[in-house]
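[agent] plan:
  1. take the single chain provided in the ticket
  2. run structure prediction with default settings
  3. attach structure tokens to the ticket
  4. add a short note for the reviewer (M.T.)
[agent] executing step 1
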Amino acid sequence: MDPLSTSLLFEQFLAQRRYLKNVTPSTIEWYQTAFKALQKILGADLPPLTKSALQAFVVAVRQRGVQPVSCNTYIKALNAFCLWLHEEGHLVERLQLPLLKVEQRIIQTLSDQSMQTLLRQRPKGFDQWRLHALVCLLLDAGLRIDEGLTLRRRDLDFDNLLVTVFGKGRKERRIPFSFELRKVLFRYDAVRMRQCPRCELAFPSRQGTAWDQRNSLRGLHLLQEKLALPTFGWRRGKSDERACASNLLAARDWRKTEQQEKGDAGD
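[agent] step 2 finished; step 3 output follows
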């Protein structure tokens, strides 16, 4: 391996990823987290990377109780670093660790009854309206939670029933939403304007800054407890989007069912 220290080479790797590949800050943080874990196991002054050293790192991490899925996130980041080392001539042989096998489980989705309970609640005040509107948006349009929390008011096209999101991979997408969702978002926007009239974010904090994902999740869990619903979290990945999509039709017809029930009761 190149005589330069592994830590110095890693900084060069990050610089090239940041300025030549234009990766997102989240990706840079992912690389740094994996490298810090490697330093914690093998020492701050890392020796030259070898296959046996990387395998020893994986063994040590697993012995500390880290789950295979989390271990794989480290492996993917370190494999990217090792590939860069090989391409730049710092490693003669490319080092690549295989991913650990993980359990493939069916993603649990909301039942129709739970979804209707969630969507039929009557929010009061800014905090309840904000959470209710966000939940309706995620269910109806199938957005990731970070796409919803970073959404701006100008990204919502009420006339054409479209929402424009800037999500993973720095890709902009335009997604249709339902007429019933427009009603919810329009009513919520009136409440939001009274709380944060100068904020551009669609779902801001009370102070008009970005609403933290952890705080929004706490609000969701409190709502689930109040409505006696099973506990679930925000959807964030591609596989989660597919689970969200399975409930998409029900989410778009959530008011239609309620109207039908009222009509049956009146007959």
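[agent] step 4 note for reviewer: Residues 238-262 have pLDDT under 50 and may be disordered.
[agent] ticket updated
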